[in-house]
Amino acid sequence: MIRVLIADDHHVVRRGLMFFLKTQKDMDIVGEATNGKEAMELTQSLKPDVILMDLVMPVMDGIEATKLIKSTNPEIQILMLTSFSDRDHVIPALKAGAAGYQLKDIEPDDLADAIRKLMRGENTIHPEATTQLEKEWEPVVPSPHEEHPLTPREQDVLSELTKGKSNREIASSLFVTEKTVKTHISNIFAKLHVQDRTQAALYAVKHGLTEPSGR
Questions:
Q1: Residues 35 and 121 placed together within one structural domain of the fold
Q2: Helical (H) or strand (E) element with 87
Q3: Same-domain check for residues 115 and 148
């Protein structure tokens, strides 16, 4: 079972999320918080697998709560679920350690899929949030004498990963096995000194590696 904690200051939102997620046979709602401070405190006692975190809340906002939670519980996956898609919210949220960023108008089934993606170690970022990432970081063009640490195939895998594809989808797209994809992703993390798919995606955007190498 995927243990989910909901953090949102709006009662109606929490009720709606709980009503839907309780219908998912592989999910268990372990608690709900009305602000970031409560979310942080409940995390210590409940140890959820995934936290659905609102951004703007009283007492402590979602970004500060995410930073504190990830500093002591790095294994917990945090999905920002908000109404804001501007850079002033998207960039700080992902830099704070959120593994996903979705808007509250997301379809219920898509939300469930997003939660499952996080549990598989995959990133899940709304297209509008991805656009903000592209605006934030202009691609860094390496000099002719600068060699990139990734192999051409690893660059291909990174490009597919940045599009939010699962390991299975990447394997199908590149005509390789899922095991091979997992190996490439492990190598990418090690070479780029990143810890998860979201950080790898941010690196790809910053360094202009969002398109396949073509080799």
A1: yes
A2: helix 87-96
A3: no
Per DSSP, which regions of the chain are E strands? 2-7, 27-33, 50-53, 77-82, 100-103, 124-125
Q: Is the dihedral of CA 58, 62, 67, 70 positive or negative?
A: positive
β-pairing, 77-82 with 50-53?
parallel
Q: In this structure, which amino acid lies at residue 131?
A: T
Domain of 17: which CATH number? 3.40.50.2300
The string of pLDDT tens digits covering residues 135-185 is 555 444 444 444 568 888 998 999 888 877 888 889 988 999 989 999 999
Q: DSSP strand E in 148-197: where?
A: none
User: Are 98 and 53 spatial neighbours (Cβ–Cβ below 8 Å)?
Assistant: yes
Instruction: Please give the structure tokens belonging to residue 50.
Output: 């995934």
Q: What span, in angstroms and rounded, lies between the C-alpha atoms of 27 and 183?
A: 29
Half-sphere exposure of 128 (CA within 13 A, CB side): 15
Q: Are residues 200 and 145 in the same domain?
A: yes
- Domain boundary (116, 134, 152) is at 134
Tell me if 178 sits within 8 A of 166, measured CB to CB: no
Output 26-29 pairs: Cβ under 8 A, ≥24 positions apart: 26/1, 26/2, 26/116, 27/1, 27/2, 27/112, 27/115, 28/1, 28/2, 28/3, 28/4, 29/4, 29/5
Q: What's the predicted TM-score (pTM) here?
A: 0.67
